[in-house]
Amino acid sequence: MSDLLERLRERGWRMTAQRRVVAEVLDGEHVHLTADEVHARAAGRLPEISRATVYNTLGEMVSLGEVVEVTTDRRAKRYDPNAHRPHQHLVCARCGTIRDVHTSGDPLSQLPADERFGFTVSDVEVTYRGLCPDCAAGA
Amino acid sequence: MSDLLERLRERGWRMTAQRRVVAEVLDGEHVHLTADEVHARAAGRLPEISRATVYNTLGEMVSLGEVVEVTTDRRAKRYDPNAHRPHQHLVCARCGTIRDVHTSGDPLSQLPADERFGFTVSDVEVTYRGLCPDCAAGA
DNA sequence: GCTTGACTTGGACACTGTCCATTGTACGAT
DNA sequence: ATCGTACAATGGACAGTGTCCAAGTCAAGC
């Protein structure tokens, strides 16, 4: 049984077959799936699951802080189950591959107080872009 | 006459009324507009301009490096005419206000070589999120 | 096993962006 | 000044992503 499901249950989540399947899909593959990809994989196990339910469930997981939304391109949001360890993303501009990476310092601390304009800054999203080895080699 | 137009002309751009209007809209307001907002403002001056033309023109400006695309939310891309000074963005999670900010160091140098996985890293996009003073005050 | 309110469904809808065939026009050549 | 042509604009159809809602279903507590 996944840790993700455990944590959600502890927070009073009603446990349904649909939510279980979505959590298992996220927990199972450590890649960054779009909502529709999650739906496709979930439908493999529970054919009658609807798209709306997957969107709702993902949205709830994000609100609870169990999953992080990543927007690396102009297309679909992606969902990253690795929410409890802060990290950044490295994206290939050509093939779209995404890797989790770790910067040497905390990016939040890089924004000086006089550049915050009174904002209460709580989060930072960092996306590096470039070419992966395969694409750089012209593959 | 705008600097933006000057630079584009020097690069062999054919100058049309539509392109002029789009450039003027971007140059005139130092905010971060969506493509459709640009279209709305452009249509104020040149009513028959089409949406496709605005999208095309913005895309060309981005390719030429004169304008930067910013995706701060899941909705529309925004266009930042301030392309020649590297900067990051600070976004209010509630009202969506966007400010240009400057970090204390170069974020690109914060990614160690052993975290690059052979990628040729050429760019980094940093978005800080939080609440602006008004929204934090419950306004 | 009931009851109840939360959850799911599925289809319609909205928004953003792209595509393409047709029409129009800026600009160099004459 | 005029012409020819390649480049640009048009606008309407289309695709992908995400949201909404009314009706039906079901998990969980009693």
Automatic annotation (TrEMBL), chains A, B:
SUPFAM superfamilies in UniProt: Winged helix' DNA-binding domain (SSF46785)
Keyword Metal-binding applies: yes
Pfam family, one: FUR
A single GO molecular function term of this UniProt record: zinc ion binding
InterPro entries cross-referenced by the UniProt entry: FUR (IPR002481), Fur_C (IPR043135), WH-like_DNA-bd_sf (IPR036388), WH_DNA-bd_sf (IPR036390)
Keyword annotations: DNA-binding, Metal-binding, Repressor, Transcription, Transcription regulation, Zinc
The protein's required cofactors: Zn(2+)
GO biological process: negative regulation of DNA-templated transcription; regulation of secondary metabolite biosynthetic process
Binding site for Zn(2+): C92, C95, C132, C135
Details of cofactor binding: Binds 1 zinc ion per subunit.
Record flagged with keyword Amino-acid biosynthesis: no
Family to which the UniProt record says this protein belongs: Belongs to the Fur family.
Name of protein: Transcriptional repressor
